[in-house]
Design a protein that fits this description.
- This protein has about 180 residues and is an alpha/beta fold.
- It folds into two domains: about 1-70; about 85-170, Winged helix-like DNA-binding domain superfamily/Winged helix DNA-binding domain (Arc Repressor Mutant, subunit A, Orthogonal Bundle), CATH 1.10.10.
- The chain has helices at about 35-45, 55-70, 85-95, 105-110, 120-125, 155-165; strands spanning about 1-5, 15-20, 25-30, 50, 105, 140, 170, 175.
- The chain has a four-stranded mixed β-sheet with strand order 3-2-1-4. It has a two-stranded parallel sheet with strand order 5-6. It has a two-stranded antiparallel ribbon with strand order 7-8.
- Helix 4 (about 105-110) crosses helix 5.
- The radius of gyration is 16 Å and the shape is globular.
């Protein structure tokens, strides 16, 4: 069984889903493709999706609350991330981007020793189902512009600024 629950955040409500093994989805509820994501999860895991909670969802809610208060930089959660080997490699590389920092898609591809694959890296980032926890918001365009965030560029900017504020890094030229 895949359990789902709603989590209120400063950026709007998020939908979370978890199996008994771990978190498999965290997305903003206003995303147009959210319903199809639930359907894909049901097919992928051959499980029913039902509202409810479990230990993984409770841990996620607690850790997200700490993150938004500036008290947590790293998430300690069991994650279930079905995808291709390449996608999982990209998502693992996202988790290595330090809190409060950003890199470009090209830099991410270079770190993965595959600089020619920056478009494929961007595509894999876009297919990340676990927002914030797998921090795809930390990846920006090579020119420094904010690009490509399923939750919207305003949320991406907010998340980057939030992390910089609590990491002591400059936010729009202001050091906190």
């Amino acid at each position: 069984m895949i359990r789902t629950s709603k989590i209120e955040t400063p950026l709007g409500d998020m939908a979370a889903a978890a199996t008994k093994e771990g978190i498999c989805l965290l997305e903003f509820t206003d995303r147009p493709a959210l319903e199809s994501e639930f359907n894909k999860l049901a097919l992928t895991f051959n499980e029913t999706v039902k509202p409810g909670t479990n230990k993984h969802l409770r841990a996620l809610k607690k850790q997200l609350k700490e993150y938004f208060r500036g008290k947590r930089r790293d998430f300690m959660l069991d994650l279930i991330t079905p995808g291709t080997d390449f996608q999982r490699e990209v998502w693992e590389s996202l988790k290595k981007i330090p809190y409060g920092e950003t890199i470009s898609y090209l830099e991410q591809a270079r770190i993965m020793n595959n600089p020619g694959a920056f478009r494929a890296v961007a595509g894999a980032n876009a297919s990340n189902r676990i927002a914030i926890v797998i921090p795809c918001h930390r990846v920006i365009g090579s020119d420094g512009d904010l690009v490509g965030y399923g939750g919207g560029l305003e949320r991406k900017k907010w998340l980057i600024d939030h992390e910089r504020k609590f990491s002591g890094k400059p936010v729009d030229g202001i050091l906190f």
